[in-house]
Amino acid sequence: MTDRLIRLMKIIILVQARPGILARELAERCGTSERTIYRDMDALSAMHIPITHQGRGRGYSFIGHFAMYPFGLTEDEVQALYKLLPLLDEIKPMLPDSFEGAYEKVLAAVYKQNAEKAEFQNGEREECPERSI
To answer: Is 0.70 topped by the overall pTM?
Structure first.
């Protein structure tokens, strides 16, 4: 069950990152068969996740403005992002103007996630104080 849950989350992230992604591509990325992807799509639909099939050859996308923020990055993924930092000046001319801002937002979210994780592990996270009337 855990493997399926992880795969379902991965499918949501892939569809969000690449609207129009085909079942074949999802199967390759998830290391499973296309038939399993079709069953997973049925399961996501049953959970009211607004994913739709756009038609033969047009792949899957979300209906409306559905978004999930996938910042449960592994340590290897975080390190890969940080390794890109020194190269940014070199590759900046090849990137769209908006890349740097997007990259900074991702790093900020990673930093916040790591800070919250550290606070929780150190027991420093406080309960919300009660409001006085």
So the answer is: no
